[in-house]
């Protein structure tokens, strides 16, 4: 099979398109494996849809299906555009709802699904930005992988520590389904932005830096989150599925 590998700010994905919607949990594990597969944080499968430009299936590296993925939405939009599956400005369906995206060269902006606050857990706050994210505003160096892993299982959520420095937002994320810290997480950066904004640390727009150090932009307009940054199609390959 022919697959494309993408990096969206360091969050990496294997992407292919198909005609049939079926359980692809096993192939996600195989393709995402960093030793025996292509290697990625997630698998995205682009499928035709009658109402929208396309529909996707998103799987984490461990084969679990997730409702949404912010960085993945930008990579998928770029893939769909360059493969002539969607126009520059597109709408596509995820489990969490409809995503609007616009491709401009290697920059892609996604309008995420509606967001909400779920609950407070001490100094942490649990947001839903398409998928669940616990966020704490603290020194970015206080990110502790063991604590994050414990919270992830206690709350079935991704876990973020965020800090505002010189008006910019810095975020580190432990991702469920990858079961490790990743180089970037879009829905996590957006949840972190919401918490920082609530605390008056940022306004309606912010420049954000995930662990990869790449620059992204988030804005809140009419209570909707817009998330913008570069994506890179790192390679296209054939992969033997045996
Ligand atoms: N990396 C993604 C989020 C992917 C899903 C997440 N791991 C989950 O299972 O909730 C992003 O960029 O938003």
From TrEMBL:
UniProt subcellular location: Cytoplasm
Pfam families: DAP_epimerase
Top EC class for this record: isomerase
Keyword Isomerase listed: yes
Keywords recorded for this protein, A-Z: Amino-acid biosynthesis, Cytoplasm, Isomerase, Lysine biosynthesis
Superkingdom, taxonomy of origin: Bacteria
GO biological process, one term: lysine biosynthetic process via diaminopimelate
Example of a GO cellular component annotation carried by this entry: cytosol
Family: Belongs to the diaminopimelate epimerase family.
Functional note: Catalyzes the stereoinversion of LL-2,6-diaminopimelate (L,L-DAP) to meso-diaminopimelate (meso-DAP), a precursor of L-lysine and an essential component of the bacterial peptidoglycan.
PANTHER family linked to this entry: DIAMINOPIMELATE EPIMERASE, DIAMINOPIMELATE EPIMERASE, CHLOROPLASTIC
Name of the protein described by the UniProt record: Diaminopimelate epimerase
Lineage of the organism: Bacteria, Pseudomonadati, Campylobacterota, Epsilonproteobacteria, Nautiliales
Gene this protein is translated from: dapF
